[in-house]
Amino acid sequence: MEEVEVVVAHHERATLRVGDVFLKVDTDQARADAEVAAMALAPIPTPEILWRKPPVLALSALPGRELGRPGKPSTASSAAWAAAGAAARKLHEAPLPPAPGWSPGQLTEDLDRECAWLIANDVLPAELVTRNRRIADAALQPWTPVFTHGDLQVAHIFVEGDEVTGVLDWSEAAQGDALFDLAALTLAHQEHLADVVAGYGGDVDLDRLRAWWSLRSLRVVRWLVDHGFDPKPEVEVLEAQLF
């Protein structure tokens, strides 16, 4: 009998694995609808949808393994990291999805709210928050929207050898800044930034990409704490940004 593995679970949703099938349980059907629609539009490999019976979405397992895990060294090759960069480029060159995503103004309001909470609740030192908030300003300039994954972290990219076999978790896909995806991909894996940029090709504004590291980390700490996850990788990124 195959065992049920809890891949991830928190207050909003859960993902279970039974053999070669992933079961995503999400009570927010609008978010699930958006994920299904984004996978249909994406020009890069995604899991096959086996069936859907709300609130459950059944997906096939992808071959290979994750590019990495948050907070842990990646054992994937430089070529695999470059392939992830190339996959991001292909996505960003695709026609825009219908979801508009966050505007710079909305992100500024949300970021300021999160920073105020982090300081008021003594979650992080005030100086660490304020200095990273200043760094994040560079990411809040107007951008040309592209098709973004929205949460292109290493655990959502599967590779086999030096090739990308698929990308998971499209619930945050929307129009956005290409550098947001590249920052998510390299967050806490800065040693692979050059590989990703080489695979992505073209000019990449590294200062703005690093600004997205600060912005993403500041915005996600409260969510991680509230849902029982350790924000250590994000805090280490914020600390490293000061040097």
Structure characterization notes:
This protein has 243 residues and is of the alpha+beta class. It has one domain: Alpha-Beta Complex (Aminoglycoside 3'-phosphotransferase, Chain: A, domain 2), CATH 3.90.1200. Helix content is 42%, strand content 19%. It has eight helices and ten strands. Strands 1-2-3-5-4 form a five-stranded antiparallel β-sheet. It has a three-stranded antiparallel β-sheet with strand order 6-8-9, with helices on one face. Strand 1 (4-9) and strand 2 form a beta hairpin. The mean pLDDT is 94. Pfam families: APH. This is Phosphotransferase family protein. Residues 21-212 form the Aminoglycoside phosphotransferase domain.
Any chance you could write out the topology, listing elements then pairs?
Blueprint: E1 4-9, E2 13-18, E3 21-26, H1 29-41, E4 49-53, E5 56-60, E6 65-66, H2 78-92, H3 104-120, H4 126-136, E7 146-148, E8 157-160, E9 163-167, E10 174-176, H5 178-186, H6 193-200, H7 206-226, H8 232-240
Antiparallel strand pairs: 1-2, 2-3, 3-5, 4-5, 6-8, 7-10, 8-9
CATH class descriptor name? Alpha Beta
**What class do helices, strands and sheet pairing give?**
alpha+beta
Kindly report the name of the CATH homologous superfamily: Aminoglycoside phosphotransferase (APH), C-terminal lobe
Order of strands, main sheet, comes to 1-2-3-5-4
Task: Give me the number of helical elements.
Answer: 8
Q: In percent terms, what proportion of residues is strand?
A: 15-25%
Distance between the termini: 52 Å
Order of helices and strands: EEEHEEEHHHEEEEHHHH
CATH architecture heading: Alpha-Beta Complex
Residues in helices, as a percent range? 40-55%
